[in-house]
Amino acid sequence: MIVPAASVTRWPRYGSRPGLCTGNNVPPVNTVRPVIGASQLCQNVSASDERQRDGRGLRRRELALTSCCQNVLPQRVASGASPATIAGSRADAHRERGVTLAAARPTIRDVAGAAGVSVATVSHALNGKGRLDHRTRERILRVAADLGYRADPRARALRTGSGTVLGIVASLMSDEGADHDGRLDWYMRTAAAAATESINAGYALTLVPPSDPASWVPGLAVDGVLLVDPDPDDDLIDRLADRGLPVVVISGDSDRPDVATVSLDRDSAVECALGHFLARGRSRPALIVDAGRRQTAAGTRRAYLAWCERHGLPPRIAVADAGRARGEAGRRAAVELLQHFPDTDCVYAPLDSIAHGVAATLTAAGRADIGLITADGMIARLHHPPLTAIDTKREQQAVAATRLLIARLRTGVTQPSEVFTADLIVRDPPE
Fold first, then answer.
1. In terms of residue numbers, what domain contains 287?
2. Which of 34, 94, 308, 334 is the most exposed place for a label (fewest CB within 10 A)?
């Protein structure tokens, strides 16, 4: 075969390119060979080594393939090849070595080479750090996106000394009884929103099952905790924070300066519910709530009393027994309410599991004239007819709390707490 002069190259003497010309495949000096691609080069370099059966022969083949891939790819970068071409070259070279395409992920060095900047500059651009011109940062981000680059969370954890696993704990789940379906609904809404935000930020979310904190807090293998509706009567916040775990509370309070909270403005929730009743001509509102110290109960009770005082109305409160299943506690509390305040014309029950029992009692007593509002969720939506409900911003609270926790992990600084204003979802039947 006649090879055109423009398509030839001369191989260097043995030893000038370690790893490529070894063993029996060393060509004579000044031997003319056609120019070949990276894939064929890797095959030819090791062709004669296939006759080697000992350990040294196998090692020579590995070195030849490795050196081939390491020399060809940087040349593609230096030549100004596009990110897609660079990624393709890496994948081709890895396939010749028997490595799957998934393992041939672009590295930060590939991004740096394609963008014509240093590895440190790429790191600053990807992490939003350093003093970079915004045009440079945007160009690096575009190159990284074109290459399909994603930071390795395991490598980042080793480099920074911090991991990427969050835990979500709902203490309220531990005392659930017959109200499993309804109460699981709000928990999974919270967890799903937090999980979506976590994965988008490069973190994993672990659901921690309810049990005695003493049995799991000491060995909890997470880097930060989202704590949902904590009970002030237990010491779970202190247990977690004293272990050095960053904690953000959802729908709760904390006096600790190192714990941020995300919660609903209970005054706005009471105003939504009772203001709606007043607008519909209902002026004798009652509250049914348990006697617990969680924010949902204690915060709502305080806001209700303040609202009644502002409007010059006597408070009507029936207490649901927290020791019972929530539905049953709501039924009993509604019976007591009707006995003591038979002229009541509307009820606000902030816990939908309690409202479910309240609705059953009102139906059984033939009191369809009494309006009922609760927190939005599966119970309110599936009730017949559907109940007007308070939008407690459950998903928004979860997203905000997850962001606060990730910011704490990345900066070491406790972020300011956030409070959401309630909205009303009106589902009243026509009057």
1. 266-393
2. 34
Residues 6 or more apart in contact with residue 8 via CB below 8 angstroms: 32, 33, 34, 35
Give the Cα separation of 30 and 14 in Å (integer).
11
**Is cis: bond before 83, omega within 30 of 0?**
no
How far apart CA 190 and CA 184 sit, in angstroms, is 10
CA neighbours within 13 Å on the CB side: how many for 134?
0
Question: Global pTM?
Answer: 0.66
Separation CA 278–CA 65 (nearest Å): 80
Long-range contacts of 123-131 (CB under 8 A, 24+ apart): 126/151
Helical H runs in 201-235?
213-216
- Retrieve residue 136's tokens: 């440079």
Does residue 428 fall inside a structural domain? no
- 83 and 119 belong to one structural domain: yes
Note whether 169 and 35 are same-domain residues. no
**Is 429 a domain residue?**
no
pLDDT tens, per residue, the chain with 431 residues? 444 444 444 444 434 444 344 444 444 444 344 444 444 434 443 444 444 444 444 444 444 444 444 444 444 444 455 555 555 555 555 445 444 444 467 888 999 999 999 988 988 888 777 788 888 988 999 999 999 887 765 555 555 555 689 999 986 544 445 455 556 778 889 999 999 999 999 999 999 877 778 888 888 889 999 999 888 888 899 999 999 999 999 999 999 999 999 999 999 999 999 999 999 999 999 999 999 889 999 999 999 999 999 999 999 999 999 777 888 999 999 999 999 999 999 999 999 989 999 999 999 999 999 999 999 998 999 998 999 999 999 999 999 999 999 999 999 999 999 999 999 999 987 66
Task: Let me know if 379 is exposed, middle or buried by CB neighbors in 10 A (0-12, 13-18, 19+).
Answer: buried
Asked whether residue 176 is domain-assigned, the answer is yes
